Amino acid sequence: MEKDLTFIDLFCGCGGLSLGFEMAGYKSILAIDCWKDALETYAYNRPESRTLCADLSTASPDGIKAKYGIQSVDVIIGGPPCQGFSIAGKRIIEDERNKLYKSFVNFVGIFRPKAFVMENVPNILSMGNGVVKESILSDFKSLGYEVRHQVLTASDYGVPQNRKRAVFVGLAQGKMFEFPKPFKSERITSFEALSDLPEQSIADGSTYPTITKSDYQIWARTDNNQIFNHEITVHNQRTVEIISMVPDGGNYKNLPVDLQSTRKVHIAWTRLNSNKPSFTIDCGHRHHFHYCYNRIPTVREAARIQSFPDKFVFLKSRTSQYKQVGNAVPPLMAKAIAEQLKDLL
Ligand SMILES: C[S@@+](CC[C@H](N)C(=O)[O-])C[C@H]1O[C@@H](n2cnc3c(N)ncnc32)[C@H](O)[C@@H]1O
Predict the structure, then answer these.
(1) Which of 135, 166, 191, 285 is close enough to 274 for a disulfide, judged by CB 3.0 to 4.6 Å?
(2) Which residues line ligand 1 (CB under 6 A)?
(3) Are residues 294 and 316 in the same domain?
(4) Residue whose C-alpha is closest to residue 272's, from 194, 198, 201
(5) Is 108 domain-assigned?
(6) Nearest C-alpha to atom 14 of ligand 1 is from which residue?
């Protein structure tokens, strides 16, 4: 019998990145984060999984290896949050702000997986005029990994969203990773992603009140007949009046001049465009609105935009749910990377 490929997810959040690897047939053997809410969601959706709530800036990879009796793992995945790297000369140095990245490197050094996948914000590649990128490449090279990196756009891989992430993939034993080519099919639009979800709330656990209108929706409903996390936000009258003046795909520029600066940020009063993939969804800052309803997307709609299937349920407060969804790597983009990698493992 063929053995499942295994992975450890560092900074796992609710597990968007993990889910992509699971969809590609890998098995999570440990997922670590310091945020309890996200770990509850992670575990709820994967009753067999093992999660650890720990601060990765201080956690010892040796200690964790011993405690969990992990002999080997095929891949380490994760996205260490970077609060701006500090560099000295051409190196990322040992410093408070670099601790989470260094922790990821240390885990790779101790567990020595066959491969690692590290994702981050796209501008990590230009930080310090490229010194951060070069330093990352050389840190992993000195551990014996051949590293490739690229900025990927989620909508190239069947995700109805234009989110971009920088991805580093390292392989031991001199193998070279090729990033997945963009899928040829048309980009999935916001309409295809959301149009079966109604304007009003649906009580958690209800069956779908509508039929599907796209192949993407059929995919999202796979193995599922109950809907969760579709509770709408009821905005105040003024907000509803203002957003109702913004057309599908429009923004504050469509408002009368005196209303344009009613919110300080430029991304305010933006509506999704029903004919295009969504822009990068935020973590619930209430600036981006549905393409036709006068409200922000529900957590379920945000999850659809991120390519979480409907059977994936988000736990804890609504604010926390938005943050869990917004933080995640789109599962379908992660799946494309995981499948490409599988051929080499
Ligand atoms: C961008 S999110 C990860 C999203 C995740 N990869 C996904 O696809 O769902 C970053 C995560 O790092 C976690 N984090 C931040 N600082 C941490 C620390 N010191 N120790 C452990 N986890 C930390 C946060 O709680 C957050 O869940």
Answers:
(1) 191
(2) 11-17, 33-35, 38, 55-57, 79, 81, 100, 327-329
(3) yes
(4) 194
(5) yes
(6) 11
12 a catalytic residue: no
pLDDT, tens digit, 9 for 90 and up, residues 283-323: 777 789 999 999 999 999 999 999 999 999 999 999 999 99
CA 254 to CA 245: how far, in whole Å? 7
Q: Residue 217 and residue 206: Cα distance in Å, rounded?
A: 17
Question: Residue 95 above 80 pLDDT?
Answer: no
Nearest Cα residue to atom 27 of ligand 1: 13
CA 198 to ligand 1 centroid distance, Å? 32
The domain containing residue 272 runs over which residues?
Answer: 190-327
How close is the Cα of 14 to the center of ligand 1, in Å? 9
CATH number at 311 reads 3.90.120.10
Least confident of 61-65, 99-103, 179-183: 99-103
Same domain, 169 and 148: yes
Average of pLDDT values for 20-28?
Answer: 98
Quick one: tokens of 260? 């344009």
The token pair at 177 is 């990773």
Mean pLDDT, rounded, of the chain = 93
